[in-house]
Amino acid sequence: MKEKKSPKPPKGFRVHSELFKSALKKVMPVANSKANVLPIVNGNVKVSVTGSEATLTATDLTTTISVKMPVHGLTNEIIIDPPIEEQPEMLMLPEGNEDMPGEDFDISDEEFENNQYDDFLDEPSYFEAEEPKQPRYKRKSKKEAEVVVEVLEAEPEQEPIPEEQFHQTEETPFEDHNTEGLPEWMYTTPSEEMEEEETIDDDEDMCDDFSPINQQPFTEKQEDESTFETDIADYEFLLPIESLPVIEALNCPIEVVSYDGVITITTDIGSKYRFLSDPVEDYPNRRKILMPDFKFYLPSEILFKTVKGVSFAVGDDNLRPAMTGIYVEKATNESIRLVATNAHILLYKTIDAKPVILNENEDEKFDPSAIMPPIAFKLLAGTTGLVSIACDLKNRLLEFDVAGVKVRCGFVEGTYPAYKSVIPNTEPPLTVTVGKSQMLSTLKRAKTLCDEATNRLIIVVHQNEMKLICNKQLDDGPLFTTMDETLKVRTEVAKTETEFPQMVIGVNANLFYDIILQGSTTDTLVFGFYSPDKAIMINSTEIETALIMPVMIR
To answer: Nearest-CA neighbor of 414 among 447, 372, 353?
Structure first.
């Protein structure tokens, strides 16, 4: 039977339930993520305590979030409740036999052979219970063991192998080789490829593969293993997320103690809650960034506002994984650009943030860029302060750090499409200017009257007029619900055009509404029309640009 390891001494800390609840809610989206494939990471939060600071960590093997919170030492002495153990069943002896010996009762071989105690064994009331855990009489097993010993002793002993045969084979006797200085395993199992004239010198390397010249370099796999977290904490344990409802219902200081696989939460009034915990040693460690290639520093308000303005354009097609993330690249030496597209709409915004190059490759033109998963920004929602974004291009890792919250995730794999190729670099033949509120009000009505299958909205531009037309068929019948609304706009024709261009173009009403509502930050909208088969430009500037692709009218 395997000996049970002695439990570690109890460890714990004191913290207010509101602070603990706030930290748990930040890591809960990852702890409850549907992407979890290991049972131990699904529903567990790792708690690491170092000094007066506790770190809560959750991972789904793709994204890792860590939240720090201040803690205090325990005010009272830790009292551990004794484990509840079942008492062994007591066996009653008959009257007059109180001094009867137990399992240490010895019986001679002669008594066993004469079967003097067979009648005594047949009395179950003395020594047999319904399910005895520790039977006191073990003479039967002893007898069986003696039978096994007799059988083993009866087996004939094998003759030892002569020493001269043990050190040689029929094909290649080792007597012809120099075995001095070699380990035993090398001359007891000689190689078939070894020739009779071959000798091994003690001064030479026994194997060329171990020579300094032929040693393998430090592999990438070994480097990846060195990037795993090895942070040393005073103590660690796993907190099951089923404890969150209990912590949410409390509003007072609490003490959290870990001992022998049990997490105990105690309040000042004496309330106590106990939860079983998984071994913290089984919780996987995730990779960390040792040396980032570059970093971005920018205020959280600006970052989250920009991300919110482009994130709705992120695609959800798993066949094109690159479009499921936000593309971040260097726009100038003092700014970066965030790009999002789903092949129907495209948005990019430029914000002031100087990339700090930490590991620049001199042989190639260094281009700091990465495809970031939107989940990273969602996990950081609500935090304020200066955001640090570190990028490790070799290991394909990103790390966001702000206000004690750290999110680490991998790059979105794939090559981002060449979005600049769909942006026209010439002046549009027709430019239309209209108020944002007026346009949104019209599009809100058009969304409800468009055909649900296509969401097609037809735009017709005349001199200082923009007409919006849509229709919807009712119950597969001949009747239609239609909309025909005209807006007063200001139109401008490019100098290269000799006459007013005929512009009739179809767009997706829902996408058109969203891109104006969330993608535009101005009160006045400027549309650039090129042709019925090309994208419509919206507020095209160096700071922000939005495009919507046309749809077929018929």
So the answer is: 372
CA distance 458 to 496: 26
In a domain, 28, yes or no: yes
Measure the CA–CA gap between 19 and 70, rounded to whole angstroms: 9
Strands 11-16 and 369-372 come out as unpaired
- The rounded distance, in Å, linking the Cα atoms of 442 and 551 is 19
CB 429 within 8 A of CB 341: no
Same domain, yes or no: 320 and 413: yes
**Chosen domain end from 397, 419, 441:** 419
Domain with 353 in it: what CATH number? 3.10.150.10
Q: Position of tokens 């059988």?
A: 151
Residues 172, 255: Cα–Cα separation, whole Å: 73
Average pLDDT for consecutive 10-residue bins of the chain (554 residues)?
Answer: 67 94 92 79 92 93 92 76 50 49 51 50 45 45 48 52 50 48 47 43 41 36 44 86 92 93 90 93 83 87 90 88 92 89 92 79 64 91 90 88 92 90 90 94 91 90 93 72 91 89 92 91 92 91 89 81
97 touches 105 (CB < 8 A): no
